[in-house]
Design goal:
Helix content is 39%, strand content 16%. It folds into two domains: 31-310, TIM Barrel (Alpha-Beta Barrel); 321-398, no CATH class. The chain has helices at residues 47-52, 63-68, 72-77, 81-85, 97-103, 137-140, 169-179, 197-219, 222-227, 240-251, 269-277, 294-302, 312-317, 350-354, 357-365, 370-395, 399-410, and strands at 5-11, 17-23, 26-30, 32-36, 58-61, 91-93, 147-149, 154-157, 164-167, 183-185, 229-234, 257-260, 286-288, 307-310, 321-322, 329-330. It has an eight-stranded parallel β-barrel with strand order 4-5-6-10-11-12-13-14, surrounded by five helices. A three-stranded antiparallel sheet has the order 1-2-3. A three-stranded antiparallel sheet has the order 7-8-9.
Length: 412
């Protein structure tokens, strides 16, 4: 039995495509946004709200965090992550490689998957370009550097209690087998956008060797390979030649799909994607790891990316920043205190139909927990609506026009 079936419904040459991925726990349409539920939960949002209000198709959870709490043994004894978190649709786990980077090379540095720095916490403007953080600031006050990479794997100390652990490609696969997600990723070394090309090449070679070890471990588990699909990860940083080199090696391995990982620059993301995608098999899905801002999704789709994931929609929502068709807004700004209009009438959805900017601004200022729930549902629905519109535009042969029109409004 094949654990994953990918059907391409329509595609443009070397560009956008629309399709469907069938897993043991149901199917989802592509291009798809994978909602991040790091610890087996999307913060402030219930599974029922994800399904009925946010229109979520697929959820992605984090191997590193689930390993630390509650442990893969408990999840396995509960019947797997689907049963444990009561999500019975398609489910993905990452390998833990990004978290290893964030606690190792990226620890204590104000850097992200993009070369742009994160804005000051005191800036409350709607036009700030944010990017996913590569380290947890709460960890910074507790420990020094937490992870050390070597040829065999990574030694790291828990940011929770300082316990020493070790991940190898084999151990990462073993944990993800126990978690039981429909799709999971091979263990890789995620690099910084600040790393030199020589280190990118060194880390790429290590990622390729780890990919082979991950694949061998998975294929030797007969039960797991019938129910779980394994994706390999392309690295190479910002250099197109290194991207193409890594994609050629990873693409030649017998993975069920591929992740495009590592670090990028906003200005050369498209070039890196072209180089990293062209050598990959055309009939297997491609996932752009950790990238999910609207403008980046549209760029990724234009290059043939099928799947995205990002913490930004819910992370920003919890601090009062909402997506709208006219760009981001931050409800902590004074102008929204008496704004009785919907959150985003053009997008609609449960949150926008039921609540006003003034009410949500009040909840945030009063530090009410409901604020995070309403805002998170809104942002997730916005992204899911965007994905649905993208798919429809590809089917109707108008993706390029849709992209231009969307960005003209969104970036005004």
């Amino acid at each position: 039995m094949n654990p994953l079936t990918f059907t391409i419904e329509k595609e443009f040459p070397n560009g956008a495509r629309v399709g469907n991925i069938q897993t043991p726990h149901g199917s989802f349409e592509t291009p798809a946004f994978c909602t991040v539920g790091t610890k087996g939960t999307v913060k402030a949002v219930s599974v029922e709200q994800l399904q009925t209000l946010a229109k979520t198709q697929v959820v992605l959870a984090n191997t590193y965090h689930l390993f630390l709490q509650p442990g893969e043994g408990i999840v396995s004894n509960a019947g797997g992550l689907h049963q444990f978190m009561n999500w019975h649709g398609p489910l993905i786990t990452d390998s833990g490689g990004f978290q290893v980077f964030s606690l190792g090379a990226g620890f204590g540095k104000d850097i992200s998957k993009f070369t742009t720095s994160r804005p000051s916490k005191n800036i409350l403007t709607s036009d700030v370009k944010t990017a996913p953080a590569v380290f947890d600031e709460s960890v910074l006050t507790q420990h020094s550097k937490l992870a050390i990479v070597d040829e065999e794997g990574v030694s790291f100390t828990s940011h929770i209690d300082g316990t020493l652990y070790r991940f190898t490609p084999e151990r990462s696969v073993e944990i993800q087998h126990a978690l039981g997600a429909d799709i999971f990723f091979a263990f890789d070394e995620c690099t910084s956008p600040e790393d030199s090309n020589s280190y990118q090449e060194k880390a790429g070679n290590r990622t390729h060797r780890w990919a082979e070890r991950s694949l061998n471990t998975h294929q030797n588990n007969v039960a797991a390979r019938k129910n779980q699909a394994l994706f390999g990860v392309v690295q190479g940083g910002r250099d197109p030649k290194l991207r193409a080199w890594s994609a050629g090696i990873i693409g030649a391995m017998d993975f069920d799909g591929f992740g495009i990982g590592g670090s990028f620059s906003k200005k050369d993301l498209g070039e890196a994607l072209t180089a990293g995608i062209d050598p990959l098999p055309k009939d297997k899905p491609r996932h752009l790891l950790g990238i999910g801002e609207p403008e980046d999704i549209l760029l990724g789709v234009s290059h043939g990316i099928d799947m995205f994931d990002c913490v930004q929609p819910t992370r920003m929502a919890r601090t009062g920043t909402l997506y709208t068709k006219r760009g981001k807004i931050n409800l902590l700004r004074r102008e929204y205190i008496r704004d009785f209009t919907p959150l985003d009438k053009e997008t609609g959805g449960y949150s926008s139909d039921k609540y006003t900017k003034a009410y949500l601004a009040h909840l945030f200022r009063a530090k009410e927990m409901l604020a995070a729930t309403i805002a998170s549902i809104h942002n997730l629905y916005f992204i899911e609506s965007l994905m649905s519109d993208i798919r429809e535009s590809i089917r109707d042969n108008r993706f390029n026009d849709f992209r231009t029109d969307f960005l003209q409004k969104y970036q005004q």
